[in-house]
Each structure stands twice: as C-alpha cells, then as structure tokens.
Amino acid sequence: MVKSMVKTITLRELRLELPRVIERIDEKFDRYIVVKRAKPVVVMMSVDDYESLMETLEILSDKKCLKRIRIAKKEIGEGNTVPLKALRKKLEDV
Fold first, then answer.
1. Distance (Å, rounded) from C-alpha 37 to C-alpha 32?
2. N or C: which end of the chain has fewer CB within 10 A?
3. Environment class of 30 (CB within 10 Å of its CB; exposed 0-12, middle 13-18, buried 19+)
4. What is the pLDDT of residue 5?
5. What is the mean pLDDT of the chain?
6. What are residue 10's DSSP bridge partners?
7. Which residues pair with 42 in a beta bridge?
C-alpha cells in the first residue's frame, strides 16, 4: 500500500474538486479532512483504508491478541523463529 497523505480541504473547495479528490483517495490512498466554517467536520478515505483502520482497532482492543503479538515480537528478537521452508513443510503435512 502506498503511504497516504492527509490533506485539509474546505467544503466549498470539495464541491468544486470532488471528482479529483475521489480519484486521489482511490489511487493514492490520500485522506481528506473536510472543514466547514473553520471546523473539521468529516474525514474522507478509501474503503480499503477504512477497513484496515477498523481491523487495527479491533486487534488493539483485544488484550489476548496484543499479548500474543508482544510474545511473538520477543521471540523474534531472541531468534526463536521457524525457517520458511520448514513452515511450508509443516503446513503441507496438515
């Protein structure tokens, strides 16, 4: 995925630039904060970007999952890993 940029756009500008904004969101994963009367009111992002964000929030809210991630990172740091070939063989045997 391409690194996204967050841009601020006024509601008036958005009305004029909507097709271009949607194209940039779709192709470059840009995010837009829409401002109305100097107040941020809406965030625009791609559906894929949104779904990824929701999945990340779900993982971060799961204490068991976070614990498994911390343990895995520690094991990786200690060199306690399985070579890819061995993992593929193990999965083929299942």
1. 16
2. C
3. buried
4. 84
5. 93
6. 35
7. 34
Pick the CATH number of 1-45 from 3.40.190, 3.90.940, 3.40.1620, 1.10.3210: 3.40.1620
Do residues 44 and 25 lie in contact, with contact meaning Cβ atoms separated by under 8 Å? yes
Residue ranges matching CATH 3.40.1620 in the chain: 1-45
Rounded to whole angstroms, the Cα distance separating 21 from 13 reads: 10
State yes or no: pLDDT of 2 exceeds 70. no
Distance CA 86, CA 41 (A): 51
Cβ(14)–Cβ(21) under 8 Å? yes
37-71 pLDDT, tens digit each: 999 999 999 999 999 999 999 999 999 999 999 99
Helix, strand and coil percent figures for the chain, each rounded to 5: 60, 20, 20
- Answer yes or no: are the C-beta atoms of 31 and 25 closer than 8 Å: yes
Strand partners, 9: 34
